[in-house]
Amino acid sequence: MNVSISVKQLGKKHPVLHEKSIELALTNPIVTTQTLIELVVEHQLQLFESSSFEWEGEDKIQLPKENYLPILTDTGKVGFGALYNHNKVDLRAAQETAIQAFEDGIYAVFCGDDQLETLAEEMNLQENKSITFIRLTFLAGSYW
Predict the structure, then answer these.
(1) Whole-number average pLDDT of the chain
(2) Sign of the dihedral defined by the CA atoms of residues 65, 132, 2, 34, in that order
(3) In terms of pTM, does the model score above 0.90?
């Protein structure tokens, strides 16, 4: 099933990831928040594993285009498409980390205009509502 996903960060005008359609392996269109998070993590892990790795000794410089560089610097991370971490990622551990981050309030998930507040909350993905992940920023400071 195709699902439209967008990733945003509070305080930024442009989304980190523009709305993108991804294919999730679903048999039932009604899923819980936990299932949705697990499926998105699994999809992202598959994309990561299918990316090409640059091993030492290979020179594959992939410079970004001029209009792409300001977007990279706005997000705070400039990369050139090379992956240097060759370790295998444990799917179950990645899913548990994403679920723990949701429970801790590191990011919020919206289905259309409705915020999903618990892991047991259900949504119907056949309604073609956009799923939005918003990374929350914590303010540092003290009262003293």
Answers:
(1) 79
(2) positive
(3) no
